[in-house]
Write the structure tokens for this entry.
Amino acid sequence: MHIKILGSGCANCVNLEKATRQAVDELGLEATFEKVTDYADIATYGIMRTPGLVVDDEVVLSGRVPTAGQVKDLLAAH
Amino acid sequence: MTTATTDRRAATRRWGLLGAAAAAWVGAYALNEVAWTWLYRTVFGLDLTAGWPSMLHFFCYDTIKITLLLTGIIFIVTVLRSFMSIERTRALLGGKREGIGNVLAASLGVVTPFCSCSAVPAFIGFVASGIPLGVTMSFLIASPLVNEVAIALLLGLFGIGPTLLYVGAGLVIAILAGMVIGRLHLEGQVEGFVYETRLRGQVVDSTADLTWDDRLAMGREEVASILRKIWPYLLVGIGLGAVIHGWAPADFFARYAGPDNPFGVLIAVAIGVPLYSNAAGVLPLVDALYAKGLPMGTLLAFMMATVALSLPEMILLRRVLKPRLITTFVGVTAVGIVAVGYLFNAIL
């Protein structure tokens, strides 16, 4: 599983990454993380509100910071 | 137990809790000032017309009052806004011509949930999908200028009239500023990569399938996150307000920045821009200054300048806008704010 965190580096993306790492740990998944901070790259995902969460090149969430539990649901559904 | 029964029980519980919270809110709001007055006057035997007891009393009840206002109104606004998204805004603006487009963009800027960290991706998303630069700027100006924290506090401190004036003035500034920027044809002042960006993939509207529980949870999270962010500004603002309230001689501010000073509004905007704070920090001050005789237009201009023209946001926008366009944006918005200040001073 390849996970990308999209955002310029403000508190929201830091919190999103924290929640996602926790969710990955709790689910016992194998995942690689990548941070996308370049605005041109972020825009190519069609995201207009940061932070964004991309799993295997598919946008699963944008514009809000979920709890670890919510990320678990998103990853499980993926 | 069937799923329908479980759903019904969950709904009863959810709306019951919300109703109880609303009742507690109304009770606390109604009793707040009375309770502090009783504590200071009857229990401690203090004279509330004197300097420091009056200041302390003001500080305590104003802190509670403003926290309550922020909690209630931010919660309601966030839940309502969860029905609106920036993706939907872009779809609504697509293909609209300037003029109508600016009016729509400014109105949507007020109601669409949006934080300043997203100013750049939103700008790229709008411009790359073909929405005119001026229309995009109307949206970007209205969004911070007409701010839910400011609405909450104005409504609580000054009532509906000044709140409507504030919203109306913010809309007019955003519409006109966007139209001016559109007319100046500054498209060359946008960084090239914005136009080269290819939007691909499916646009995800993250608010499309939210349940009521999600929306209410978003309201709670937003209240917590805003209060966590602004409490130091809030306490400093209320503290300064309390000092002005309790100690400043009644005619001090009126003499220097009152209705008779033709430069009052200009001075207010010049002080407001670099003093970047947020509405929560500025409004308790505005309230205290109003009580000391400063005119409403000057105060609104001061407040708008502090919240709308912030250096951190300009630095963010520099990633997509060249300096000349940023300067134009600040200049046009500042002129609008000054004009609104003088207009309100003249008509109120």
